[in-house]
# Entry
Amino acid sequence: MTEPVLPPRQPFTRPHLLQIGDLNRLEALELLDRARLFLPFTQGRDKKLSVLKGRTLINLFFENSTRTQASFELAGKRMGADVVNMSVKSSSVAKGETLLDTAATLNAMGPDLLVIRHGASGAAQLLARKMVGCAVINAGDGKHEHPTQALLDAFTMLRTFGRVEGLTVAVCGDVLHSRVARSNVALLSMLGARVRLVGPPTLMPTDVGRWGADVFHDMRRGIAGADVVMMLRLQLERMDGGFVPSAREFFRFYGLDREKLALAAPGVRVMHPGPMNRGVEIDSDVADDERVSLIADQVESGVAVRMAVLEALASYGGNGRAGGAGDPA
Ligand code: NCD
# Structure
C-alpha cells in the first residue's frame, strides 16, 4: 500500500511537552486536529507511516504502566520511529543510578524523543534540562501532570460531542493525588469547558481554589447536569492512611453508579483514565455500558493523540533544546 500524503504541519515552537501550560490554545487545537488526521489511519489495516523514519524514541518508565507505555510504543512505531522501552526493573536505575546519571547515559545513546514516567513531581522537567537535542514528553510525574492524558481526553470529547467548548465536565474522586485531574483542568478550561471538581475535602489539594474550577463535596450536586463525568482512580499507593474511611464508604458517597449518574445531563458520557478500581470509584455496570462509557474510546484516542504529539515535537524548529538551554545549573 502506498503511504497517504499528509498535509504538512507548521514547525512546533515548543522543545518539550512537560505540562499543559507549555501549550497555548491554538497549539492544543492544532494537536487535536492532527490527531483527527491520524485516527482513521490507526484504525486501518496498514498502520505504518514514515513521518519519524530514522528517529529514535526511548520510553523510560519508572512506574508500572500498561496502557500509557503501550500507547507511546504503538504511536512511535506507527509513525516509523525506532522504539526502545526501558523499564526501571531492567535498568541500572534499579541499581541506584540517579536521574542525572541516567540522563548522561541516555544522551550518549542520542535519542530524538524521550518519554518519561516517574513517581516524583518535576522529574520530567529535570531530565529535559539535561538532555541534549532531545524532546522530552512527560507521561506522568508524581502528582504533577500528565499532559498527553488530558489531550487524549479532550480528543475523546471532541469525537463524541463535536466540541469541548461549553461542555460541563465533572472530574470526580481523588483529585489530591491526581496528575490526570491537574492536566485536565488546565486543558479543559483553556478549551472553554466548564470544569467541576468533585470529591471529599480530604482528597482535594489545599490550593484547589486557584485551579479555576468549581469545587463540590457532594457527588450528587457535583454531577447534576454534567455532560461528562470523569472518574479518577483512588490512588491507594500514594496514600499513607486516613484519606478515606474505607473503600466501601468511599463507594457509597463518591462511587459512580446508575443512581448517581441519573442526575447528570441527558446523553451524559463517562470517562476513566484507567486502571479502574471497580466497585471503589466506579460500578462495573456503568464502566462496561457501551452506551455511556467512553473508556475504550479513550484508549483508542490515546494512540492518535500521541502520534500527533511525537510528530509535533519532532518538527520543532528552534534551538532551545541543545545543551540544557535555560538551565542555569
Ligand atoms: C493514570 C496515571 O498513571 O496517571 N493512568 C494512565 O495514565 N492511564 C491514572 C492513574 O494511574 O490513576
